[in-house]
């Protein structure tokens, strides 16, 4: 059996490869899933994505399965409980930002009908198909991620710099940054049509 060619960034770690093969770059239109990625990406700021992936199940338990309505209502006691949870990243600013971001997430839903409608409008509701030859050549930010980051910050979101936003765009399929030689490039492209 011939081995599938994958993007270089995920090689050698089973969890990373599974995430790459099944999730990364697949267009996401479910608000709950978009919120999950938003929370995970904001916690990732300054850390590696594999660190977050390894703690993903812990985050899922700690943050009520990423139910943004519950997260938006977290009390000080719940925030303190999260700050004692060794299974997640115990950064006070990031934990507090998850609560704030959940509240603002719902404001966007009220304004646009869904967070999906809002965020996907930045790419005209159509995934951008890049032609990355080597993952190291993929940009860390783009004009669109700059614009989206600026808009989220203006609305009060925290930990949503352009690099975090672009990683979110890659993860949720707003942009296809699989290497063109990767077996997922064409598969993801097909899902986008």
Q: Explain this structure to me?
A:
The chain is 55% helix and 2% strand. It is built from eleven helices and two strands; from the N terminus they run H-H-H-H-H-H-H-H-E-H-H-E-H. The protein has helices at residues 14-22, 31-44, 49-54, 56-62, 68-72, 76-83, 92-112, 115-120, 143-154, 162-171, 183-191, and strands spanning 128-129, 175-176. The protein has a two-stranded parallel ribbon. Helix 2 runs antiparallel to helix 7 (92-112), helix 2 (31-44) packs across helix 10 and helix 9 crosses helix 10. The longest helix has 21 residues, at 92-112. It is globular and about 50 Å long. The mean pLDDT is 95.
Q: Flag low-confidence runs.
A: none
Q: How big a fraction of the residues is strand?
A: under 5%
Q: Could you give the order of the helices and strands?
A: HHHHHHHHEHHEH
Q: Which structural class should the secondary elements be placed in?
A: mainly alpha
Main sheet properties:
2 strands, parallel
What radius of gyration results from the CA coordinates? Answer: 17 Å
Average pLDDT reading: 95
Strand order of the largest sheet: 1-2
